[in-house]
């Protein structure tokens, strides 16, 4: 038994960063583009697959962003953002928003959400979030958003990511 003054600590990893990234890639995820407007009105967005639900009441979701990301200031200073879950036919958008492209929003069809964040047309779902809290952990910041509005396209197939490759869904029947 440990006393309250003694805290256990994690052992140093017995694997490389590459091995860790490869192992994490074995978890299949959906693909999102997180969007916002800066206080000056500029559009920002990035591809993220680090997204999941936190709570139904209140409705909370989370995603994470590298502390080195050029868009970090926009997301930490802004009050709202949107999380757009991409459809199976939006792989090109996922790649565009994952690149260092000068204008990721060029020719992009979107509508403006209730608080100004872009909602990408054709997405399977979108979540308009109040920027509720942030937690710095390791080399990333975890953002927790309180969902103020959400929508989805029933029956639309999502874009999936696994092992460094994009996939579309194929339902299993039993």
UniProtKB/TrEMBL annotation:
Signal peptide: none annotated. SMART domains: Flavin_Reduct. One of its GO terms (molecular function) is riboflavin reductase (NADPH) activity. The keyword Isomerase does not apply. InterPro entries: Flavin_Rdtase-like_dom, NADH-dep_flavin_reductase, Split_barrel_FMN-bd. Residues 24-168 form the Flavin reductase like domain. The keyword Oxidoreductase applies. PANTHER family: FLAVIN REDUCTASE, FLAVIN-DEPENDENT MONOOXYGENASE, REDUCTASE SUBUNIT HSAB. This is Flavin reductase. The lineage of its organism: Bacteria, Pseudomonadati, Pseudomonadota, Betaproteobacteria, Burkholderiales.
């Amino acid at each position: 038994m440990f006393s309250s003054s003694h805290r256990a600590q994690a052992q140093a990893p017995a694997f490389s960063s590459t091995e860790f990234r490869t192992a994490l890639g074995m978890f299949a995820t959906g693909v999102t583009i997180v969007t916002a407007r800066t206080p000056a009105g500029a559009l920002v967005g990035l591809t993220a697959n680090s997204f999941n639900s936190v709570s139904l009441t209140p409705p909370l979701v989370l995603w994470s962003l590298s502390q080195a990301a050029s868009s970090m200031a926009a997301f930490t200073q802004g009050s709202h953002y949107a999380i757009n879950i991409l459809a199976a036919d939006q792989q090109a958008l996922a790649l565009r928003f994952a690149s260092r492209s000068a204008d990721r929003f060029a020719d992009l069809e979107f509508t403006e959400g209730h608080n100004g964040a872009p909602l990408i047309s054709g997405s399977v779902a979108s979540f308009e979030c109040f920027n509720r809290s942030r937690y710095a952990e390791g080399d990333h910041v975890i953002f927790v958003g309180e969902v103020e509005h959400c929508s989805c396209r029933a029956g639309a197939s999502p874009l999936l990511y696994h092992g460094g490759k994009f996939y579309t869904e194929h339902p299993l029947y039993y």
